[in-house]
Amino acid sequence: MSDNNDALVEAAMESIAAAQSLSELDEVRVQYLGKKGKLKDLQAQLKSLSPEEKREFGKTLNTIKQSIQTGLTEKKTQLEEKENSGPDLEAIDVTLPGVRALPGCRHPLMTTMDEVKSILIGLGFRYDDYPEVETEFFNFDALNTPDWHPARDMHDSFYTTKGNVLRTHTSAFQTRAMKNFGPPPLRAMTSGRCYRRDEIDASHFPIFHQLDVIAIDENISFADLKWVLYQLASSLFGKDVQLRFRPSYFPFTTPSAEVDVMFNGKWLEILGAGMIRPEVLEAGGVDSEKWQGFAFGLGLDRMAMIRHGITDIRLMYENEEAFLRQF
């Protein structure tokens, strides 16, 4: 080969040796052996040569091509072995701090829910899950909520195409529990998601969590209800907890009360309660002449916000790690 051809092969080998990846190596291949590569430029010189010169020059071109091709093949093998062998330990700076895997933690809402459930189970209440998609009978009719009640409007509740409703409160479990577990005495509870068409702001969200409790026996009174609520509140907020009962109205209890707790110097509403109406007992197949009972329901989102000093309910549903890591 002439000096120019030797220089071409030498330049090609230097480019091949400098390639640090398969993509860079392929760029070198195209540069020298591609359709518009340097070897193609040499082949164009064949047109001006005599037959004898063409044979000699052709042999030279083949030698150049084989040399470059051999270099490319050997370099490709080296790069593939390097990629398959894992990271280059010499390139890792072991003095750098590692990436810390932070431990997970339970959501404050779930922690509050489990704590309330644990307290009530200790007081003798059984826990069961109930459907989130309910019939209008269990969600409204059985709870003495008439057709004209605003809660049954399409703009207040979520309805399915089959006419069922996403439960608007966990109180929907009451009649199911009475039917499922036969004649009293009965002490039952449930918790979970509820749904209402609320505008989203700091204190409202279309999805929220409630816990609902019922107790049915022959001689249950409002005094029993107050005792249970004081036991629950003292376990959650301390033995010196103060509760305030304000007269209220619910379609499924009478008398009814809103219950407030004194927390950080302020009265905060935490739940609604009352004695179960005879119509609700009868809907569940319970003889209201013989049995009576109480019911109460509390908003778990609000309870968690009170206990942890959370001021915006939206934070509970955004799954922001920086927020959840505090608990």
What does this structure look like?
This protein has a seven-stranded mixed β-sheet with strand order 1-4-5-9-8-7-6, sandwiched between helices. It has a two-stranded antiparallel ribbon with strand order 2-3. The protein is elongated and about 125 Å long. α2 runs antiparallel to α4. A hairpin with a 2-residue loop joins β7 and β8. It has two domains: 89 residues; 217 residues, BirA Bifunctional Protein, domain 2. The longest helix is centred in the first third of the chain and has 34 residues. Helix content is 40%, strand content 20%. The model has no long low-confidence stretch (mean pLDDT 87). The chain is built from eleven helices and nine strands. It is of the alpha+beta class and 327 residues long.
